[in-house]
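can u do me a favor
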């Protein structure tokens, strides 16, 4: 929170007027005490000069405070401004500077006690009073300075905490958007690639029998319908406020793998599957979900980049041994007509496997096959 400049200026003006009034009262008391016509003009000059030096505390605080203390050595009229100068230094400067100015003020008032003894007060008690007063001024100012620094520190800590909280919220939102984008890619890319493969079959085999055409058209219709349903579920997650059932929809796991393979076969993909997992339902939920998405992306990539080529899928593992996935397909003789992929699917799979505690790799083998392989944890 910023300070109001006009408020500070008015407060300083009131303080200066208060000190000037105090000087005036001091001069009045000195005049009524009958100090003599010789000393009173000196008191007036010192008082006016001290009041003139007060505004300089804001620009040159230490020299102005020292000058006010020196003036106090010659006249009590400079004692109120000198007191304000010592307190100002104690509030605005380090303790060492405040102690130094306080010692100068104490020495000046010790000289004042010799030159202008106070009526009814011994010099020893005068020194004790000056010492206690300047020590209190330094302590009061140091306390006010420490309190102000503590308040500023707490405010800065609060601002920093708010900034860090805002950064954490932004990071959480970005993470959630990344997860949603990855899920949309995994789901929709698979469905739309099935639709594209089936539509391609209709385009390149117009002489197919009515039964085959009807079957392929049914696959296209079902694929589009499922893609729309899954898109609706993903959008439901985006709009979910914690009460939307779509946000809690069950995610596919390894037990849903046969349905995924049947969809690819229905789209005309020649699949060779070796599934050595004895009990897919015993697979941990996170591992099974990651395995399903990896196989889904592997089949999608095979249909997009190597249409018409057979795909070999091997899944093996068990409790304590981990889950191994290996997907291979021969490379096409020439690049397909489909637009090249952005590569984000494989990047997302690698991140998914890493978050699950496993690893994923891909590349072309010496036999001219594209291989996608992953190892996921399966605790015993």
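np, heres the sequence
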């Amino acid at each position: 929170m910023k300070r109001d400049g006009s408020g500070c200026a008015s407060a300083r003006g009131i303080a200066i007027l208060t000190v000037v009034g105090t000087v005036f009262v001091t001069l009045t008391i000195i005049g009524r005490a009958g100090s003599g016509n010789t000393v009173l003009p000196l008191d007036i000059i010192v008082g006016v000069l001290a009041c003139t030096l007060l505004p300089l505390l804001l620009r040159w605080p230490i020299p102005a405070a020292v000058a006010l203390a020196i003036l106090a050595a010659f006249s009590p009229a400079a004692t109120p401004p000198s007191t304000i100068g010592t307190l100002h230094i104690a509030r605005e400067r380090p303790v060492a500077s405040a102690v130094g100015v306080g010692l100068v003020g104490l020495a000046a008032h010790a000289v004042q006690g010799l030159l202008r003894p106070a009526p009814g007060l011994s010099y020893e008690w005068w020194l004790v009073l000056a010492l206690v007063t300047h020590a209190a001024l330094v302590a009061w100012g140091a306390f006010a300075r420490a309190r102000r620094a503590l308040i500023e520190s707490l405010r800065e800590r609060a601002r920093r905490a708010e900034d860090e909280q805002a950064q954490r919220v932004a990071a959480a939102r970005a993470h959630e958007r990344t997860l949603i984008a990855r899920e949309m890619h995994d789901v929709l890319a698979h469905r739309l690639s099935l639709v594209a493969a089936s539509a391609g079959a209709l385009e390149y085999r117009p002489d197919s029998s009515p039964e085959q055409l009807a079957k392929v058209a049914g696959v296209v219709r079902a694929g589009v319908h499922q893609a729309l349903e899954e898109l609706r579920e993903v959008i439901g997650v985006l709009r979910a406020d914690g009460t939307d059932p779509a946000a809690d929809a069950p995610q596919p796991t390894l037990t849903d793998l046969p349905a995924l393979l049947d969809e690819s076969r229905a789209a005309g993909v020649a699949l060779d599957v070796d599934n050595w997992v004895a009990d897919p339902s015993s697979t941990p939920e996170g591992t099974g979900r990651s395995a399903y998405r990896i196989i889904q992306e592997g089949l999608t990539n095979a249909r997009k980049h190597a249409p018409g080529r057979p795909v070999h899928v091997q899944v093996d593992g068990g409790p304590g041994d981990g889950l191994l996935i290996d997907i291979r397909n021969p490379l096409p003789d020439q690049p397909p007509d489909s637009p090249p992929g952005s590569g984000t699917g494989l990047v997302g799979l690698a991140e998914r496997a890493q978050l699950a505690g496993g690893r994923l790799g891909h590349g072309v083998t010496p036999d001219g096959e594209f291989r996608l392989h992953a190892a996921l944890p399966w605790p015993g």
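The chain has ten helices and five strands. hope that helps!!
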